[in-house]
């Protein structure tokens, strides 16, 4: 088996002249050839850079394997905790094993919810006096090849929604943001006791529900507006399968939980016999909604909008070309929403493959992607799973050619991400101390591809490495340039930051302080979390040739190889200091009229900058000592000590107490904003304190802004001490 794969592997790579031994049929010749090549390999080890260029050249024709893996993974809906998703775990495990990687599954027992019953009725009082009970059903499409398993798609619901009934007049609340409720208040609209109708799009859906609750609503209906998801809602607009847009019956399902990990085991590992909080205790923590909610389609949202009278909503609250005039209400339309969820302890499966490092096996580079999907998951998340398997396949080939990484590489395939980063968080909580002392970086890909256009976010010490990787990969949409070329010429060429809680990097970065990356091709896409996120959509609209998948796999693997193989970790903290400087400046306007000083923060950033310059110079100086014989006499402990400082400096940005009122989030530089879990914020603690102070405008509230500035300044100073490597 091993041998057969080796031969195929060699053949797939353009001729390198090593096939000579295979031509001969005599065992003796083969033995001599093998002996000679072993001798050659041990005398002159192949430089790592040769393997790295080989890694990129291995990409030719890989689109077939990627497409096949995606097709198999998305054959059926596979929600976390279901037998169908246990099957995808088995598939990923056996595929990784077939690439000769050591693979295993780690399972957890976690509390997940599934829909038991839902009803939504709209009454319009006299003179209309009509009543509509919505069927809440997503329709199969013409020639839908998945019609046979459409019945396995879960009824549309919000995971961890409150069970119960909400009855009241409807109020239209736009995107359900804090500022939308401010607008309603200014219009004199009282939301208290009503059922809020919000549209998806600007903030995390869990925050839509929480803000509605805080405004006094008793229930929430969230719809996908054709303006945002249906191609503008223009007359004659086409939608899937004829165009990429969401069909009128399409519903975006998803979680409304605001925390990370199993809500019944906050901060500790979910096993079959562990301590668990009761439903009441979970509700007291404030991360699950306290009023029921349901997601609905564009068509149902439109019907509800038409039942709302009262003042006309502002221009930017209106719908698409063909939509009725949106009014805010309340009523006269009257909604009766009832939802019952079934909360059960289910088994989830994380799949891992490990390539042990030859020189530093106790230093880990992690590549992660989740596998569970709300429906078929062609974009979200299995485009990423197919890319992960592709990286694994290529590294398996490099190993057959004699490569071993310097540090250990671990492939992680998470379960139950959709419910609230559950699989990754439970694993991080179980292995926290080991991860904190050994992980070099965590590289995440959730949706690998939904459209053209490369996007990446990272902690800033990784910026340079990301750019270098993108420079080595051909642009899948224009063969005469690299991904980097198209990236820098795009509208949004910046490297994003990882403040939002949107994917599995959150436990690594925001809880433990591991340098992280997240990347994708494309961004938001119309059929997100609906039953139309299937292989046909991907093939027609997301990535018809699967070349974007190949590009993601190439960049992902090159970043991993850089981190796993370079003698000195390719981290540049100078970019971190510069980035912090820019983020700090953004606060200047916000606090200018107050007696708030940003000086402590600027001083700490200064120290970080100096420490970064110093360690960069130190490493440069050691690298220049490459003259024989001192090169051979390089002190490995000295190298290791410098690398440890680079690795641990990010940990120093975490604080034992974490963000105020959200103590699981330990990182004081990057974390989700309080009012929008998707929002990427720098210094979320300072930001939250400013938002609060703007409302209260008291001496104490502005004092706590200053306190948060001091806290950040202290962790930045800590990071500079770690980089410097000397005790005070
Ligand atoms: C809003 O309505 C609720 C009950 O319907 C009432 O108790 C409350 O006083 C009202 N608020 C305002 C500001 O009118
Ligand atoms: C709302 O719907 C539920 C479930 O269908 C029903 O039991 C209840 O009577 C309804 N309430 C009103 C006020 O119509
Ligand atoms: C492809 O890339 C080349 C080189 O950057 C550029 O000149 C050309 O305009 C690009 N073509 C398209 C269709 O974008
Ligand atoms: C892979 O790419 C080639 C062109 O480079 C294309 O002809 C082929 O159809 C692609 N395969 C798949 C599965 O899309």
UniProtKB/TrEMBL annotation:
Recorded GO CC terms: endomembrane system
Keywords recorded for this protein, A-Z: Glycoprotein, Hydrolase, Membrane, Metal-binding, Metalloprotease, Protease, Signal-anchor, Transmembrane, Transmembrane helix, Zinc
Transferrin receptor-like dimerisation domain ranges (all copies): 596-723
Listed GO MF terms: metal ion binding; metallocarboxypeptidase activity
Peptidase M28 domain mapped to chain residues: 350-535
Protein EC: 3.4.17.21
Known cofactor(s): Zn(2+)
Span of domain PA: 168-253
Subcellular location, principal: membrane
Domain of life: Eukaryota
Subcellular location: Endomembrane system
Listed Pfam families: PA (PF02225), Peptidase_M28 (PF04389), TFR_dimer (PF04253)
Bilayer-crossing regions: 21-44
Keyword Cell membrane in record: no
Assigned protein family: Belongs to the peptidase M28 family. M28B subfamily.
Protein known as: glutamate carboxypeptidase II
Organism (species): Protea cynaroides
High-level lineage: Eukaryota, Viridiplantae, Streptophyta, Embryophyta, Tracheophyta
């Amino acid at each position: 088996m091993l041998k057969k794969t080796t031969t195929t592997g060699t053949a797939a790579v353009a001729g390198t002249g090593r096939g000579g031994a295979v031509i001969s049929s005599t065992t003796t010749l083969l033995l001599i050839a093998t002996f000679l090549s072993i001798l050659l390999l041990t005398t002159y080890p192949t430089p790592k850079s040769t393997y790295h260029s080989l890694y990129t050249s291995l990409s030719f024709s890989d689109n077939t394997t990627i497409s096949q893996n995606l097709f198999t993974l998305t054959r059926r809906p596979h929600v976390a905790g279901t037998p169908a998703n246990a099957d995808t775990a088995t598939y990923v495990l056996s595929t990784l094993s077939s690439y000769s990687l050591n693979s295993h599954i780690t399972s957890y027992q976690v509390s997940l919810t599934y829909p038991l019953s839902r009803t939504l009725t709209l009454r319009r009082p006299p003179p209309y006096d009509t009543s509509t009970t919505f069927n809440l059903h997503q329709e199969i499409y013409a020639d839908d090849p998945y019609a046979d398993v459409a019945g396995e798609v879960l009824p549309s619901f919000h995971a961890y929604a409150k069970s119960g009934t909400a009855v009241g007049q409807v109020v239209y609340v736009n995107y359900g943001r804090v500022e939308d409720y401010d607008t309603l208040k200014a219009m004199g609209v009282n939301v208290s006791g009503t059922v809020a109708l919000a549209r998806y799009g600007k903030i995390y859906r869990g925050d839509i529900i929480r803000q509605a609750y805080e405004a006094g609503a008793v229930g929430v209906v969230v719809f996908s507006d054709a303006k945002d998801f249906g191609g503008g809602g223009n007359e004659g607009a086409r939608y899937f399968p004829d165009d990429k847009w969401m069909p009128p019956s399409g519903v975006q399902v998803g979680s409304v939980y605001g925390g990370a990990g199993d809500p019944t085991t906050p901060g500790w590992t979910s096993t079959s016999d562990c301590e668990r909080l009761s439903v009441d205790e979970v509700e007291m923590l404030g991360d699950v909604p306290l009023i029921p909610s349901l997601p609905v389609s564009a068509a149902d949202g439109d019907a509800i909008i038409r039942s709302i009278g009262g003042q006309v909503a502002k221009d930017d609250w209106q719908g698409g070309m063909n939509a009725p005039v949106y009014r805010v209400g309340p009523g006269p339309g009257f909604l009766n929403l009832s939802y019952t969820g079934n909360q059960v302890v289910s088994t989830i499966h994380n799949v891992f493959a490990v390539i042990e490092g030859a020189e530093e096996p106790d230093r880990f580079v992690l590549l992660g992607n989740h596998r569970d999907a709300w429906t078929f998951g062609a974009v979200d998340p299995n485009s990423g799973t197919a890319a992960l398997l592709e990286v694994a396949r290529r590294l398996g080939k490099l190993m057959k050619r004699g490569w071993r990484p310097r540090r250990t590489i671990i492939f992680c395939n998470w379960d139950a991400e959709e419910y609230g980063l559950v699989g990754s968080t439970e694993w991080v909580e179980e292995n926290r101390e080991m991860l904190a002392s050994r992980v070099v970086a965590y590289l995440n890909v959730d949706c690998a591809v939904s459209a053209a256009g490369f996007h990446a976010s990272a902690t800033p010490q990784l910026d340079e490495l990301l750019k270098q990787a993108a420079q080595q990969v051909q642009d899948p949409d224009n063969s005469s340039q690299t991904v980097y070329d198209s990236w820098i010429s795009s509208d949004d060429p910046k490297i994003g930051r990882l403040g939002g809680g949107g994917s599995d990097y959150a436990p690594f970065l925001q809880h433990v302080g591991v340098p992280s990356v997240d990347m994708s091709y494309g961004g938001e896409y119309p059929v997100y979390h609906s039953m139309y996120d299937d292989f046909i959509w991907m093939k027609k609209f997301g990535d018809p040739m699967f070349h974007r998948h190949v590009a993601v796999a190439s960049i992902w693997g090159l970043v991993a190889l850089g981190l796993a193989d370079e003698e000195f970790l390719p981290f540049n903290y100078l970019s971190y200091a510069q980035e912090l400087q820019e983020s700090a400046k953004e606060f200047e306007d916000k606090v200018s009229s107050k007696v708030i000083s940003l000086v402590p923060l600027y001083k700490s950033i200064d120290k970080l900058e100096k420490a970064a310059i110093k360690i960069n110079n130190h490493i440069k100086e050691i690298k220049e000592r490459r003259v024989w014989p001192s090169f051979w006499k390089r002190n490995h402990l000295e190298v290791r000590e410098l690398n440890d400082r680079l690795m641990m400096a990010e940990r120093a940005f975490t604080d034992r107490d974490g963000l105020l009122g959200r103590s699981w989030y330990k990182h004081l530089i990057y974390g989700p904003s309080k009012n929008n879990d998707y929002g990427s914020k720098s210094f979320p603690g300072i930001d939250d304190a400013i938002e609060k102070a703007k409302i209260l405008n008291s001496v104490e509230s502005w004092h706590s802004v200053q306190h948060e500035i001091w806290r950040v300044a202290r962790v930045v100073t800590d990071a500079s001490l770690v980089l410097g490597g000397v005790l005070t």
